[in-house]
Amino acid sequence: DAGVIQSPRHEVTEMGQEVTLRCKPISGHNSLFWYRQTMMRGLELLIYFNNNVPIDDSGMPEDRFSAKMPNASFSTLKIQPSEPRDSAVYFCASSLVPNSPLHFGNGTRLTVT
Amino acid sequence: TQLLEQSPQFLSIQEGENLTVYCNSSSVFSSLQWYRQEPGEGPVLLVTVVTGGEVKKLKRLTFQFGDARKDSSLHITAAQPGDTGLYLCAGAETSGSRLTFGEGTQLTVNP
Fold it and tell me: Which of B44, B46, B98 to probe by mutation at the A interface, max A CB count within 10 Å?
């Protein structure tokens, strides 16, 4: 079991650029979550999918953020245009079903200058 | 969204000491999960408690779910430097499918 795989591990970009974060969930897991972690706000749920369908995107900060899950083995989180306040560690997690224990990836540390 | 408050926010102790971390809410949760996160990694599940009053032990770690399923505690006996990390509690809402995370307790165990 390779676990949840995220890429890239680190991303440094300039304000205004588009950023795409990628996630491969654990095979067989039906739920996928995107979280953002900062010192100030802790771990925040951005969006989650169940069976590839977005269920709750109320945590997405604004229209600059979008997420897709075209199939059961891949999801992306896109920020366009990026801003310095988007700097954070973004985690992808998957679980068998919603509310079951989460398996997190190692995160993408995003720095927007 | 149901809120979870963890205390203390930071804890620095010496090896061999005991400690307790608390996770409190005014809301009822169907279950509560505890995770530990180390630098540069994602949180890793330690335990899930489901029944009010439930106590689970994992070696030197003891987890308890409050009778009313609104709070939980994590007690570590004879802490070791390897216990250092960010401890997060997460409550599963009784309605819906969201997990709400507390802000975490950063534990440092000094040799």
Answer: B98
Average pLDDT over every residue of B56-85:
96
- B28-53: buried (b, 16+ CB within 10 Å) or exposed (e) per residue? ebebbbbbbbeeeebbebbbbbeeee
Mean pLDDT of A59-74: 94
Q: Is the pLDDT of residue A62 over 90?
A: no
Give percent of chain A with pLDDT exceeding 90: 86
Q: Do B42 and A93 touch (CB under 8 A)?
A: yes
d(CA B105, CA B86): 6
CB contact under 8 A, A42 and B104: yes
Identity of the amino acid at A46: L
Mean pLDDT along residues A38-57: 92
**Considering only CB atoms, which chain A residues are within 8 Å of B96?**
56
Predicted confidence at residue B2, as pLDDT, reads 61
Assess contact for A95 and A104: CB atoms under 8 A.
no
Mutate to test the interface with A, among B97, B100, B105, B106 (most CBs of A within 10 A): B97
Using the beta-carbon criterion (under 8 Å), do B88 and A43 form an inter-chain contact?
yes
Q: pLDDT (tens digit, 9 = 90+) per residue, A81-109?
A: 999 999 999 999 999 987 788 999 999 99
Confirm if A25 and A73 have CB atoms less than 8 A apart. Answer: yes
Q: Taking CB atoms and an 8 Å limit, are B97 and A48 in contact across chains?
A: yes
